[in-house]
Amino acid sequence: MEWLTALEDHWWWLVFAALLGIGEVVVPGVFLIWVALAAAVTGLIALALPLSVPVQFLIFAGLCLVAVWGGRRWYAANPVASQDPLLNDRTARLIGETVVVVEAIEGGHGRVRVGDSVWSCRGPDAPAGARVRITGADASILQVELA
């Protein structure tokens, strides 16, 4: 175990950066890579300058903040296109579906069955059992028209 104490400080930072990079590949989250970058730069600074360990940790903390801030700004300016942009927008996914009225639409308000659930809706008057098409949504209230 003598080799543990024989390694110089900069090697610990570079090994830490490599482990964080591997962690980013194994558990992708687009966050560890920025901390890995901060650790690698800290290692290179420790290689170039004789700094005490507490100063190295301060540099690492500052670089982490700057790297994460810069990464967040970069991803905000360059969003990753989703293969399914409506993945987390359930109401938008329902647009175009034909559903059955379970509680008559009277005065513009009623309820429709969507799959195994019942949703509030707005639209033209329709009796229970009528088929309507979803044309939009306002929060969790579906907009419907006669099918």
Automatic annotation (TrEMBL):
The keyword Transmembrane helix applies. Residues 92-145 form the NfeD-like C-terminal domain. It comes from Sphingobium quisquiliarum P25. The keyword Transit peptide does not apply. The chain crosses the membrane at residues 12-37, 43-69. It is found in: Membrane. Keywords: Membrane, Transmembrane, Transmembrane helix. It is a multi-pass membrane protein. One of its GO terms (cellular component) is plasma membrane. This is Membrane protein. Coiled coil: none annotated.
